[in-house]
Amino acid sequence: MSFAKTPGWMDWYAGPSKPKFQVPAGSVDAHCHVFGPGAEFPFAPQRKYTPCDASKQQLYALRDQLGFARNVVVQATCHGADNRAMVDALLHSNGRARGVATVKRSVSDQELQDLHAAGVRGVRFNFVKRLVDFTPKDELMEIAARIAQLGWHVVIYFEAVDLPELWDFFSALPTTVVVDHMGRPDVGLPVDGAQFELFVKFMREHPNVWSKVSCPERLSLTGPKALNAERSPYRDVIPFARTIVERFPDRVLWGTDWPHPNLKDHMPDDGLLVDFIPHIAVTPELQQQLLVENPMRLYWPEETR
Ligand code: 0GY
């Protein structure tokens, strides 16, 4: 089946630069996706966008180019709850990729077992209204209770303005909870303002909550241009990500977000995204936790015991 991508949708950046920052040995890109290829793994009928293809081979070539050792492949909404493309990527990774799935209440215990055997270690609950239709909270809680028994965690994606309304539901989740992209703060607001303080409080009051300090390209208002003294891209995101890394160094993850769905104005050079890391994790110790120790503990715990 062939799919026409959503008008205005940008293709991912071909030929990314070699980063200047060398990531530590064993680093994990803990947030990335595969899209299709649509001819092999059709996109979901209920999807809100149609991406370009982004295959497992292209993802693993990027991993090698950037100097990473492993990936966590996160199910994207364009594939709905059909996890076949993601699972296929895990099965062709030589054990170097784990996954986060999307499942419905109707998922069978055997299907969950099969996902586990393929390398899935979490489910994603998405609350971003432009990406998904509403799923009743009782359905999500039922799924969370079932996957908790497998030792999996829940990844949540939401916008900062929705945190107050979702707070109680998130607090009741029985697993480790990983927040995508710091809960999408408005980085035009002060880092010590009410909105981001609420997110910091959320992490402080919930020791089971982790955060991905990812997606500066999605959050930034200043963009990739390096204008400040340290010549860092996405400089307006730095104080936000750095705060989370320094306050919660053992509960942070980083990922490229390749192939960067739904970007319409600017597509990042993934090499430049890697060069952003030392601006938010400023010591070798913090970098080691962010890129190696934390993701290994969450996704490959059997190798860290
Ligand atoms: C991301 C962000 C986005 C999309 C998805 O599953 C998805 O479709 O997560 C977005 O559009 O903000 O993390 O990939």
* Strand proportion: 5-15%
The computed structural class is alpha/beta
Q: How does CATH name the architecture?
A: Alpha-Beta Barrel
**Rg, Cα atoms, Å:** 18 Å
Shape: globular
The number of domains: 1
Give me the CATH fold name: TIM Barrel
Q: For the largest sheet, list the strands in their spatial order.
A: 1-2-3-4-5-6-7-8
CATH-wise, what's the superfamily? Metal-dependent hydrolases
Ends apart, CA distance between termini: 45 Å
Low-confidence stretches: none
Instruction: Provide the list of bound ligands, each named once.
Output: (1E,3Z)-4-hydroxybuta-1,3-diene-1,2,4-tricarboxylic acid
Which CATH class is shown?
A: Alpha Beta
State the helix count. Answer: 10
Description:
This protein has a single domain, classed as Alpha-Beta Barrel (TIM Barrel). Helix content is 34%, strand content 12%. It contains ten helices and eight strands. It has helices at residues 56-66, 84-91, 109-118, 137-148, 163-172, 194-205, 216-219, 238-247, 270-280, 284-299; strands spanning 28-32, 70-74, 97-101, 120-126, 153-157, 177-179, 209-212, 252-253. α5 (163-172) links the parallel β5 and β6. It is globular. Bound molecules: (1E,3Z)-4-hydroxybuta-1,3-diene-1,2,4-tricarboxylic acid. The site of (1E,3Z)-4-hydroxybuta-1,3-diene-1,2,4-tricarboxylic acid (0GY) has 11 residues, from loops.
